[in-house]
UniProtKB/TrEMBL annotation, chain A:
It comes from the Bacteria. It comes from Halanaerobium kushneri. SUPFAM superfamilies: MetI-like (SSF161098). It is found in: Cell membrane. It holds the Pfam family BPD_transp_1. This is Arabinogalactan oligomer / maltooligosaccharide transport system permease protein. GO terms for cellular component: plasma membrane. Belongs to the binding-protein-dependent transport system permease family.
TrEMBL record, chain B:
InterPro entries: BP-dep_ABC_trans_perm, MetI-like, MetI-like_sf. It comes from Halanaerobium kushneri. The chain crosses the membrane at residues 12-30, 77-98, 110-132, 152-170, 201-222, 254-276. This is Carbohydrate ABC transporter membrane protein 2, CUT1 family. Keywords: Cell membrane, Membrane, Sugar transport, Transmembrane, Transmembrane helix, Transport. PANTHER family: MALTOSE TRANSPORT SYSTEM PERMEASE-RELATED, MALTOSE_MALTODEXTRIN TRANSPORT SYSTEM PERMEASE PROTEIN MALG. The lineage of its organism: Bacteria, Bacillati, Bacillota, Clostridia, Halanaerobiales.
């Protein structure tokens, strides 16, 4: 529906507005939405405001019991926020998180589209390939991470065994920050490709084959067809997936947390793992609540500006 | 479907790329399977082979008969089943009106569902726990005896259905967008009311999307452990992931058993995925074409 259409409807609704008519017209919509809305309200919105409250308090291990018993919080204003922003580690972790997100999402989308394009061509066994390539998505993430952790083991891990076979000395993956971060990237890229691949495949199938025929007649090469037909037409399909992908990667707790447990611990933390540690290992609940809020605001600002930028394009 | 012919050499290159990728994609899963077959005394091996020479199913036997695996399985099935039922019903109704109806608050509603994805899990975890505790939904008391369902399980079900919900709503909306509206119009002319038109005409057509939505909810509930770990305190109420990570204790992990448990948890998910893979293409329509 176009904007003017919607405006028109809005003004006409306004001129003879009555609650009864309004309810009759929209009753069905709201009734259908109600159950979903209630559940999300209960599980997401209420905790959000609760968290907001905690963010301005100094709730920690020592006053937690008192808080549970009597609901007493001592508020310390914006001290938590000031402390976070003035820590030098905050900016380093933020930069690392951005790098983590950008590298992951670019790789996911890039490989995803690449495989989708190959699998959309006329190849033997392609449905078998497709099924097998989805497997990383089908394994529960915490198992995946523990498996990879074993595979990055210096002496017995499959990665180093393979490297030694081709004559490269083994790498002590999980003992230094730089290699540990690469290992985490490898695991997460491996994990995320199938989702993007399936989204891209769905998108490819909705492209009208006539476009390609026309391009063929005009003498366009394969590469030109991909660049001028496939990629632009995939854009609307990939966009929601990219937005979700960025948000999920930015907030991905499990991969880094589980991979570095008992090895690198906090050396390659991204924002969410840092918060998780503050809350559930150091019991700094107020600080963690404030930090969570900052993460949310960063994502929100990013999403709004990104969607604006896309709409202008 | 666009089908393009390629030269022979090109096709060979594609096959090589795909074969290498498949090996990389599948190897870790096979590796766990191999580990689960190892006898207790040869856990560290420097061979890249999958099946060890002295393969044995001992780990599976210990796991199923001596550990609480079957009880954890029952708990997981219980939680997962209700999560899928609730998730699919809520997402299919909400997604439908987002796709079809124009009502005040529609755009903000959709944005709202997207926004909920931006909350870091840590932000919800602690308040959620306190909230569930206030409603008594972290209690270990069994409420439905013959199913072994405890209050804490109900808490998990509510949590899981809602975590997967925003994505499922978008996913359903995207698919409904591809079904022509003239179908309901005809149904309404034939005297069905709005709900019947949705229920009898559109819902059956949306089967591929329903399957995907069910899959998303299934995976959320089946795989989740960060929350379950906090909520569940009693061994007999554990879901599989919590039980599994407890197997991998602080010291002295029984790796073969751990791997066997991983395999048993992975298998149903992979089976479901493989069975449904034909729905994955086409059924997965995030957002769709209409705004």
């Amino acid at each position: 529906m176009s904007q003017s259409d919607e405006n028109l409807r809005f003004t006409s609704a306004l001129s003879n507005f009555s609650i009864k008519d309004f309810w009759r017209e929209h009753k069905f919509s709201y009734m259908m939405l109600l159950p979903a809305f209630i559940v999300v309200l209960f599980v997401v919105i209420y905790p959000f405001f609760y968290n907001f409250r905690l963010a301005f308090s100094n709730l920690n291990m020592y006053n937690m019991r008192q808080f549970i018993q009597s609901d007493q919080l001592s508020y310390i204003g914006i001290d938590n926020f000031i402390q976070i922003i003035t820590e030098s580690s905050f900016w380093i972790i933020l930069l690392r998180t951005v790098a983590w997100t950008v590298i992951n999402v670019v790789a996911h989308v890039g490989f995803g589209i690449f495989y989708a394009i190959i699998l959309d061509r006329d190849l033997m066994f392609k449905s078998i390939y497709r099924t097998l390539l989805v497997i990383p998505w089908a394994i529960p993430q915490y198992i995946v991470v523990l498996i990879w952790k074993g595979m990055f083991n210096f002496r017995y891990g499959a990665v180093n065994l393979l490297l030694r076979k081709i004559g490269v000395p083994g790498v002590a993956w999980l003992s230094q920050a730089s290699t540990g971060f690469s290992a985490a990237l490898i695991v997460n890229i491996w994990l995320g490709i199938p989702f993007m691949m399936m989204i891209a495949l769905g998108g490819l199938q909705s492209i009208d084959p006539n476009f390609y025929e026309a391009a063929e007649i005009d003498g366009a090469s394969n590469w030109q067809q991909i660049k001028h037909i496939t990629l632009p037409l995939l854009k609307p399909v990939m966009l929601p997936a990219v937005i979700l992908g960025v948000v999920w990667t930015f907030n991905n707790l499990r991969v880094i947390y589980l991979l570095t447990q008992n090895t690198l611990t906090n050396k390659i933390d991204i924002l969410v793992t840092h918060v998780y540690r503050s809350a559930f290992e150091f019991y700094r609940y107020g600080y963690a609540a404030a930090f969570s809020l900052i993460i949310f605001v960063i994502l929100l600002v990013w999403a709004i500006s990104f969607i604006d930028y896309i709409n202008e394009d | 479907m666009s089908v393009k012919k390629d030269s022979k050499w090109k096709r060979i290159v594609f096959h090589i790329i795909l074969l290498i990728s498949v090996v990389i994609a599948v190897y870790p899963a096979l590796r766990v399977f191999g580990t689960s077959l190892r006898p207790g005394d040869s856990l560290h091996s420097t061979s890249l082979a999958i099946i060890p020479d002295d393969a044995t199913f001992d780990a599976y036997k210990t796991l199923i008969f001596d550990k609480g695996f079957l009880i954890w399985l029952r708990n997981s099935l219980l939680v997962t089943f209700f999560t899928v039922v609730i998730g699919v019903s809520l997402a299919s109704t909400a997604g439908y009106v987002f796709s079809r109806k124009r009502f005040p608050g529609r755009k903000s509603g959709l944005t709202f569902f997207l926004l909920t994805q931006m909350f870091p899990a840590t932000m919800l975890l602690l308040p959620m726990y306190i909230l569930l505790a206030q409603f008594g939904l972290t209690d270990q008391t069994v409420v439905v005896p013959f199913l072994g369902m405890a209050k804490a399980h109900i808490g998990l079900i509510i949590m899981y259905s809602s975590t997967a919900l925003p994505l499922c709503v978008w996913q359903m909306k995207g698919y409904y967008d591809t079904i022509p509206e003239s179908l309901e119009e005809a149904a309404l002319v034939d005297g069905l009311n709005q709900f019947q038109a949705f229920y009898k005409i559109i819902l059956p057509l949306a089967k591929p999307a329903l399957v995907i939505t069910a899959l998303f909810s299934f995976m959320t509930a089946w795989n989740e452990y960060m929350v379950a770990r906090v909520v569940m305190t009693d061994n007999s109420l554990y879901t599989l992931p919590v039980g599994l990570t407890n197997l991998a204790g602080q010291f002295n992990t029984a790796w073969a058993e751990f791997a066997a448990a991983s395999v048993l948890i992975m298998l149903p998910v992979m089976a479901v995925f493989l069975l449904l893979s034909r729905f994955l293409v086409g059924g997965l329509t995030l957002g769709g074409v209409k705004g």
